[in-house]
Amino acid sequence: MTSTPFDTVAAKGRAQSSTRVRTTDMKAVGEPNLWAFGGALAFGCVMILGFLLLVFWNGVTTFWPKPLIVVTQADGARVAGEPFRAEAFRPGPEVLATLDPATRKVIADDGGLASRSLYRIGNYDIYNEDFRWVSDFSVTDTATPSGMMFIERLEWGPFIGRIQGVTIDDQERPALVGDRAGLAAAHDAARARWRQIRHIERNLIGDINHRLESERLAVRRIAIRQGEGTPEHTAALQRFAETEKVLQAEYAKLAADAQALKAEDARTRITLAEIGGAEKTINLSSVVRMYPANDLDLMGKLAVYASRWWEFVSDEPREANTEGGVLPAIFGTFVMTLLLVVVVAPFGVITALYLREYAKQGRLVAIVRISVNNLAGVPSIVYGVFGLGFFAYVLGGSIDGLFFPERLPNPTFGTGGILWASLTLALLTVPVVIVATEEALAAVPRSMREGSLACGASKWQTIRNIVLPRAMPGIMTGVILAMARGAGEVAPLMLVGVVKLAPELPLDGYFPFFHLERSFMHLGFHIFDVGFQSRNSEAGKPMVFVTTLLLIGLIFIMNISAIVIRNRLKRKFAGSQF
């Protein structure tokens, strides 16, 4: 029986209808999954943005000057300080027994909970505490009186109170107590004198000590190589004695100059009084910053805010790293990350090139690839143990024995340092670069390789001129990921060079100028130290947030720089195919 055109059209209609039904069913089945996937993505984005906003808000507001509140309690005691935070708590029976019936009823109606506020009272050398809780039910009055000063000091943290007196050259100057401009000028002169003292002690006297140590090591080096009592050793001892005599004379003069400046500095003092009347007299030069917290206008607050930020990024830490700056940590983090990239990029790219372009694909190469992938899952602290054992003790100890025997038993490279930390993190991140580079090399079309080889180019010329340039965007992606991970690692660094406070930067004016053997500070470890190792966790919280913000910003800047380079490479080779 032959089919008519009508039958053909009807069959096509039934097929199309069936297809529409199946497509509709597939859409109905896929929509819940689509919503789930989209919801998971949105939830992840919200979590990341929430974390960044939390860090950003707490970081940027850390240095904003807050008002000083004087709280009067029912027993007559007064507390002055910056409001820090508030919370609900459950008063104990001994506290409830001291309250009047009306207050107890209010607390009972609230489920037995009351509220209290935490104030940063400073004056640790007087109170032996930085913060104090004040229950709201015990407060009878709060005020922000004029003239209350927030004074940041080199030691003992901030002082909160009033200025009682100023002494200049051992002479009382009562007029300066209320003269802000005159007091600021005297404070600037005292701080300039303090910086001069520090310059003499750190730089000039430090230079003399460095020269003396260099001469001593030179004598010991000759004794090791030529033997003690030899003519060379005797001559070296004589030269050292003459040099030591000259340097000791210079040292005595500088020490006398520093002592004279310290005596002059001790004649300029400031007397402070806390809210209860207790007084404290300190050198004016030991005051880092002071301002009338309740009398500042907007421009005054902005000036204090900018001054604190500048100190944070350009000065050294103080008060167990809870105050001052983090310049050594910024420098250490940046230099360590650059060294990491310098090591991991060529090593990872060369390894990936061999595995992808030269090695014969087989079981052995597959085992190597599996091993590289497994290395990415090894805990970072294991790398730290390996770095300490191999780089510091084995390799560094061998370097000390060969090149620095005169310094032994004090190690030079045989202990933690910025070089070993960079190499350890390079090992930690090299699997990321290898995998990313292999994927980038595999993405280069085979036709480009074949065209280059057909034109007479060698295999290396093809890789260098054709494959590597077009794989470079993918390689840069791996380097960016390695750099971001390495800059944020802390656990391995605790074993191979990072310290709480580095007395010297890895960079100075002495040959070879960049000292790879020195310990260093790191922003990640600084966050851990301030947040978990400081004597007062409340005092360390603001520094934790602002240092975290700075670390994220530093990694962001370095990543953006690498991304810009990668995008330029992408545009350069976009669409360039044979």
Q: What features would you describe in this structure?
A:
This protein is of the alpha+beta class and about 575 residues long. It has a domain at about 330-500 and about 510-575: MetI-like fold (Orthogonal Bundle). Helix content is about 60%, strand content about 10%. The protein contains 16 helices and 13 strands. The protein has helices at about 5-60, 95, 100-110, 125, 175-180, 180-225, 230-265, 300-315, 325-360, 365-375, 380-405, 420-445, 445-455, 460-490, 525-530, 535-575, and strands spanning about 70-75, 80-90, 115-120, 130-135, 140-145, 150-155, 160-170, 170, 270-275, 280-285, 285-290, 315-320, 325. Strands 6, 7, 8, 9, 10 and 11 form a 6-stranded antiparallel β-sheet that branches. A 5-stranded antiparallel β-sheet has the order 4-3-2-1-5, with no helix packed on it. It is flat. The model has no long low-confidence stretch (mean pLDDT about 90).
Short description:
This protein is an alpha+beta fold and 578 residues long.
Task: Show the helix and strand layout.
Blueprint: H1 5-60, E1 69-73, E2 78-89, H2 93-96, H3 101-109, E3 114-120, H4 124-127, E4 131-135, E5 139-143, E6 149-153, E7 159-168, E8 171-172, H5 175-178, H6 180-226, H7 231-266, E9 269-273, E10 279-283, E11 287-292, H8 298-314, E12 317-318, E13 323-324, H9 327-358, H10 363-375, H11 380-403, H12 418-443, H13 446-454, H14 459-488, H15 523-532, H16 537-573
Antiparallel strand pairs: 1-2, 1-5, 2-3, 3-4, 6-7, 6-11, 7-8, 7-9, 9-10, 12-13
Helix pairs in contact: 1-16, 6-7, 9-12, 9-14, 11-12, 12-14, 13-14, 14-16, 15-16
